[in-house]
Design goal:
Length: 89
């Protein structure tokens, strides 16, 4: 918990320091994902292996970005994204 608090404190301090000299922009990302993760299959003694049955899992993603311009043609854009994943085997 201390490491997370320290990292967030450094990030907020650096963003505030850069915001005094340039135009820092914040953005969000959100959407839906359809990963194919689940698989079901087994072996049959007479028919050979059963083909896998892949199913689509409906999930989401949510994140944020910060655009920090360094010069007129170069900027740094860090971001953090939370993606819902899952699966069955």
């Amino acid at each position: 918990m201390k490491k997370l608090f320290t990292a967030l404190s450094i990030l907020v301090t650096s963003v505030c320091a850069f915001s005094q000299t340039s135009q820092v922009k914040f953005g969000i990302k959100a959407g839906v994902t359809f990963p194919t993760i689940s698989a079901k299959g087994g072996a049959s003694a007479y028919d050979g292996p059963e083909p896998p049955d892949f199913k689509t899992n409906t999930s989401f993603y949510l994140g944020g970005t910060v655009d920090i311009p360094v010069s007129a043609v170069f900027s740094i854009q860090p971001g953090l994204t939370l993606i819902g994943k899952g699966g069955k085997a």
